[in-house]
Amino acid sequence: MPKGNKVSSRFHEITHRRLCWLAIILVAILLYFPINRFMHDGVQLALPIDQNIPLYPPAIVPYLLGAALIVLFPIWAAIYIKPKEFEAYVVSILTATVISYLAYLIFPTFVSRPEIVSNDVFSKIIAILYQADRAYNAAPSGHTFYTLISCLYLSRWQPRYKLVWAVLAVLIILSTLFTRQHYVLDLVCGLALAVLAYVAGRFAQKRWNLQFAS
User: Fold this and answer.
1) Helix 60-80 with 3-12: angle, nearest 10 deg
2) What pLDDT does 1 receive?
3) Any alpha helices (H) in 107-183, and if so which ranges?
């Protein structure tokens, strides 16, 4: 069977419950944007080390890869991942998303961005990013916790490629610094939230034998 037909066949096998949970995940992720537009004031979690991190425009490439991963990974997981494993992922991603939004609303944070003066293609894309994504919702870093959660589950589901997932996670997470989208402490908060959410998903899977989406 051609690969395209296999994907189509697998998609049609997804239960309505799983599709509903996928929709919930995607809507929850997209709520970032109205929250980002709503926020004002707040604090910066800048450390002295942050002053020495330069803007490196080519870092926008792994940064955009991370943005694509945030949206596409849940879709892939809904299509291909077996029952109970998908439920654990749902618990993890929604736990991290809800906690991050509470953090943004209760303890607003923002970053101070540099002025874009170069005219190369990477700099132009960063300038567009700065216009589309306001400087708020800095901690915890969404790119960081979504990426790490995805790569932790990928390492569990596709263990042969653990090194690939590790390199991918490092590149995307570091790109948030070199695009000057986040400070180091934003990443630390994102990493801690990702680990917490992953543990919550695995605990729920073992403790309650999850089957709500399959």
Assistant:
1) 60
2) 47
3) 121-132, 142-157, 162-178
